[in-house]
Amino acid sequence: MNTLNKTYKELSIPFFKEVFDCIDETMSTLGIPYYLIGVNAIALELLKNEIQPARGTKDIDFAVMISSIKDYDKISKSLVAKGFNKVTAPWTFYSNKYKVVVDILPFGELEEENTVNFNNRIIDLHVLGFKEVLSDSVPVNIEEKIVNIPPLPGMILLKLVAWSDRPEERADDVPDILRIIEHYFEIAYDEILESHYDTFPENGELDTFVIAAEVLGRKSGIYLNKSKELSNRIKGLVRSNTKSPSESSIAKKWAQVKHWDVEYAFTILKAFEKGLLNE
Where does the chain show beta strands of DSSP type E? Predict the structure, then answer.
């Protein structure tokens, strides 16, 4: 068990405790496993290492492992009874009281080819990578609650999948990935020294971003071995972004966020690709 001796306030997530209490009560009553994912899961993981959240958000994402849409309907009824309203997307709930948007993303036995179909709305939700990444989730204790979150390498994959599905709506996913890379050398320093020392340059200046990116690529690649479809999606996405700096949407976004030359951002992405493809 990873224990986080912090308060909800330090997460800088407005009304996280109140919303989390509602979700926890609902899922515990129904006996449904659930996971915190997205930027809030990243913030929680980084906070374990005394790294403060980069940005607050009023969007809180959870994944729930269920076997049928009937189970999801039970979740919906419970949350509506607690004051949450259904909005446009059938997996999204809104609290007028807390002014918070909550996405409840189902995966598990109800999936068909990594897609969940909400029959009454004929809307498909793509959950590629959820089973592979969340099977390796880590329980974290925050105050009196326990929440399961995916490991950072897995979070990168989920972010890449979400961004590739709807890049026009997911502007924060690529910067969120860079934030993981930015702090990973510090977080995993002992492991990197022990198991990934070959990523250090024989000559030249030590670049912790480049080393962290390659190590994260290696560790992310483990999940690709569990799913051919996930492997094809991630490898195809990364390869399409590592043809050249000028054609790389990811590198250009990283350069914009950090005020870097795009060539340097591209170098970091190439290091991630190297680790991912085990080159």
Answer: 2-4, 34-37, 59-66, 84-86, 92-95, 100-108, 115-118, 123-126, 138-142, 145-149
Please report, rounded to a whole number, the percentage of residues in the chain having pLDDT higher than 70.
Answer: 87
Contact between residue 211 and residue 266 where contact means Cβ atoms under 8 Å apart: no
pLDDT tens digits, residue range 98-111? 999 999 999 886 65
Domain definitions of the chain by residue range: 2-150, 173-276
Q: Exposed, middle or buried: residue 74 (CB in 10 Å: 0-12, 13-18, 19+)?
A: middle
161 within 8 A of 234, measured Cβ to Cβ? yes
pLDDT of residue 169: 83
Among 3.30.460, 2.40.160, 1.10.3470, 3.10.450, name the CATH number for the domain at 2-150. Answer: 3.30.460
Distance between CA atoms of residues 144 and 150, nearest Å:
20
- Rounded CA-CA distance 152/137 in Å is 10
Residue keyed to tokens 């009874």? 81
pTM, to two decimals: 0.90
**Residue percentage of the chain with pLDDT more than 90:** 67
**DSSP sequence for 79-141:** HHHTTEEE-SSTTEEEETTTTEEEEEEEEETT-BTTEEEETTTTEEEE-TTHHHHHTT-EEEE
The lowest-confidence range among 99-113, 180-194, 201-215 is 99-113
Q: What Cα–Cα distance (Å) separates residue 215 from each residue in 109, 182, 222?
A: 32, 12, 11
